[in-house]
Amino acid sequence: MKKEILILRSYLKTNLGRLRSVLEIKIESFEILWSCFLKSWIAICFYFCVWLSDKLFH
Fold first, then answer.
1. pLDDT by residue (tens digit) across 5-37?
2. What's CA 42's distance to the chain center, in Å?
3. More confident of the two residues 3 and 52
């Protein structure tokens, strides 16, 4: 019984470690995607403001 508990604990530790590394990779890729998304929205808003000011003042 004690041996089975030890095997189960080591199994859980290795799987939790794998899960944590997978989650860290997914969080990093999500942060990269989110920053690209924000940069593209900032660029679109900036372009729209320039276009609008060009239309209004010419």
1. 888 888 888 888 888 888 888 888 889 899 989
2. 19
3. 52
| CA 4 centroid distance within chain | 38
Per-residue HEC secondary structure of the chain comes to: CHHHHHHHHHHHHHHHHHHHHHHHHHHHHHHHHHHHHHHHHHHHHHHHHHHHHHHHCC
pTM of the predicted model, to two decimals? 0.50
Boundaries of every domain in the chain: 1-58
CA dist list (Å): 10 to 17, 21, 25, 39: 11, 17, 23, 44
Structure tokens at 36: 């690209």
Residue with tokens 């030890």: 6
